[in-house]
Amino acid sequence: MKLTKTFLASAFAVATFMTGGIAAAETLRIGVEGAYPPFSKKEADGSLSGFDIEIAQALCAELNRECELVEQEWDGMIPALLARKYDAIVASMSITEDRKKKVDFTEKYYDTPTRFIAKEGAAFDLTKEGTAGLKIGLLRGTTMQCYVEKHFPEADLKLYNTQEDVFADLVAGRLDMQLNNTLQALDGFLNTDQGAGFAFLGENLDDVSCLGEGTGIAVRKGDGLSAELNAAILAIRANGTYKTINDKYFEIDIYGK
Predict the structure, then answer these.
(1) Complete edge-to-edge strand list for the sheet that includes strand 40-42
(2) 135-170 pLDDT, tens per residue?
(3) What CATH code is assigned to 114-211?
């Protein structure tokens, strides 16, 4: 009996080691945000909802894991992952070469464009010279920050911890414009009472070096979890779960090409 227990304990330890410290039967801890509707938001009762939240829960179900959602402010997402506060990030994080130096990514689970927002009728010249001195609001640590710093270095960047704060300052006139994911901008601002009088400015932006290759799930390097999650993403795309979640929040398939 003693030998059997020792053998089982050893086998469990090996299995845990082989999956980078995450045994198949364990709870999967997912880092999420709660201030980026419709991808994630906090309800009045304190619960979390949104596209990212439901995708995280669907992936856990597909992997037959219990799902623990761990709320985290955006700029601390990767540091908290590396500190083992959670095992993966499902928080609309774009796949970029800079982030790949720190973490591994799954394949994309959605891909949507990025665009500026300003007062209706604004005629800002979206060039290096034309944006000099303009106050541009951005969520701290995002691909949008990278884009503005690279293309509009003379603009006056205002960095925020939550997207809600960016929109609030835009409405209050403390910002000239802000840069955001188009679907989040529509459902989280432009199609709400708060966004009345505002509109998209310019065309969709395109710079893979900053804006990335779509939105993926970040995991610690060497954990081996990305392969499991890739298989789960394909599975929920194939069995209709992804479409059900997608159609609850959006009128188009945001998975992209």
Answers:
(1) 35-36, 40-42, 48-49
(2) 999 999 999 999 999 999 999 999 999 999 999 999
(3) 3.40.190.10
pLDDT over 60 (residue 53): yes
Q: Is 166 helix (H, G, I), strand (E, B) or coil?
A: helix
Burial 105-142 (b: 16+ CB within 10 A, else e): bbebbbbbebbbbbbeeeebeeeeeebeebbbbbbbbb
What DSSP line would sit under 16-34, residue for residue?
Answer: HHHTTT--TTSPEEEEE-S
Rounded Cα distance between 117 and 133, Å, is: 17
Q: Are 211 and 151 in contact (CB under 8 A)?
A: no
Q: Among the CATH numbers 3.30.300.10, 3.40.190.10, 3.40.50.300, 3.30.300.350, which is that of 26-111+213-249? A: 3.40.190.10
* Pairwise CA distance, residues 254 & 240, whole Å: 14
Question: Helix, strand or coil for residue 256?
Answer: coil
